[in-house]
Amino acid sequence: MTDNHQPTLHADVYSDGGCQPNPGPGGWGAVVRFAVHQWFLSGNDPDTTNNRMELQAAIAALQLLQAAFGRCAVDLHTDSEYLRQGITGWVDRWQASGWRTTNGDPVSNQELWQQLAELARAHQVSWHWLKGHAGHPHNERADWLATQARRALRPVPSVGPAVADPAAADVQLAVKASARPDGDAGGWGAVLRHGVTTRELSGRRPGASANVLLLVGAAAGLRALTRPCAVAVLSDADYLIRGASQWVARWIAHDWHTKAGQPVANRAAWGELLAAAEPHRASWHLARPEDNPDLARAGELAAAAAAATDIAPR
């Protein structure tokens, strides 16, 4: 996808895209870094797919560079293997076979792949895969841009109270964390209740603080739900309950900075929790283990996970 002409200008691009549900309303975001300059790009589509949004993010970034500077050397970072493998390995075969797959079917998203391939030839692009939601600031910013663009299409009740009484929710999720004093590892425990039926979950994360463990445990419990529902999250931790119901909205409005202007701690874990809560009508409630048997049991699960030498989430 390159030629022998070596560009003298260099840029870094971080791109992301997604849908909720997939297919459905989608958004894309890209961070373009050139010398001391930075651009933040985003867009949305009310009826699309994750893959189309990933492609659109890369296209928009390369279009900006082409219009502003001409040919550039670009390091493009993505957490989409579909995008990276497609442009580095599949596109040439598709072009040679008349934009047909090995099964003879038309290539999905052909018009976007053709546009991206043309832009890739106009630049000298190195394609890099990086793990999503792993704390990389520019990848996290691209993810945030994509999410905000998608949410602009329709309100998403990801935070804030949805029911006043936890007992009125379809499901209750009790969450506790237990961090070891030596800092070596900590555990989380969660109990999901639907009527008289319960499900227990737990996990362990080396070096994690109690706050991170709470967020991880709550996210894991929400992801375990098999359909969108009204879910009441219960914990005795202000950090989780007040954070999700009050603080997050302000942080998002201030580009994930606190009132004092400092970057919000545990940003990746908060992002994981918000993504897990998004399909549901989540409410957040302070509770005491002595008054709630499920929360007490979640504490036992968390302590056992923290004390274990090797435990996988179950």
Structure in words:
The protein is α/β, with parallel strands linked by helices and 314 residues long. It folds into two domains: 10-151, Nucleotidyltransferase, domain 5, CATH 3.30.420; 166-307, Nucleotidyltransferase, domain 5. It is built from eight helices and ten strands. It has a five-stranded mixed sheet with strand order 3-2-1-4-5. The chain is elongated, with a radius of gyration of 22 Å. The two termini are 44 Å apart. The relative contact order is 0.13. Residues 155-163 have low confidence and may be disordered.
CATH architecture of the largest domain: 2-Layer Sandwich
Low-confidence stretches: 155-163
Q: What is the CATH topology assignment of the largest domain?
A: Nucleotidyltransferase, domain 5
| Spatial ordering of strands, largest sheet | 3-2-1-4-5
State Rg: 22 Å
The largest sheet, given as strand count, sense and whether it forms a barrel, is: 5 strands, mixed
Given this structure, which CATH class of the largest domain is correct?
Alpha Beta
Helix content: 25-40%
Number of strands: 10
Mean pLDDT: 87
What structural class is derived from the secondary structure elements?
alpha/beta
Which series of helices and strands comes N to C? EEEHEHHEHEEEHEHHEH
